[in-house]
Design a protein that fits this description.
With 229 residues, the chain is mainly α. 82% of the residues lie in helices and 0% in strands. The longest helix has 38 residues.
Length: 229
Amino acid sequence: MLLQGYGTLLAAGALLTLKVALLSLLAAFVIGIAAASLKLSRQSAAAAIATAYTTVIRGIPDLVLMLLIYYSLQIWLNDWTDSLHLAQIDIDPFAAAVLTLGFIYGAYFAETLRGAFLSVPRGQMDAALAIGMKRQQAFRRILFPQMMRFALPGLTNNWLVLLKSAGLVSLLGLDDLVHAARQAGNATAQQFLFYTVVALVFLAFTTISQLALRPLQRAYSHGVRKAQL
């Protein structure tokens, strides 16, 4: 057999990797929206905290951050339980991977979203508020749709990078695609074969992602393109 009977193991690892990436995308988007809003806030303290967050995270390699966040959280949790004389709590590797990737890429999403927010003329929100819309309504109906047109190219790129970084979660103890390939390669002495499979799977993920996002990009740009004809 081509995959020496390890096809099921690789498929399970690929599914786990995709789950981690998708949930991390959701977490990163939520964190990115929050951080971008804080950076645009009139409160200097909030803006300074958000700026420090994006500056520090974007300045340290992802691999170092993943290990630092994961192990530091476990150490802090152990110290906290010891101080309260409680049983030790082990962080679930899956949840840790999702939160770690979400926290890291939230910084990149924040910068992309902040730039997109600034690309929408401020008068759009002022006009919406002037006709009686609540701020939440104006954000959902006026600002967000226009902002997404500017944000989607950057968000797409951020997602593709996040997806590839999901291949590092095996370092946190997850049985992901890379871990499965390592096991299969060590057992069969065919590391090249199985890591080639990993490369092809990630290539398939990124290709499908780009194809899936095209309709969304056309939808948010539809009115603008029509107006330019």
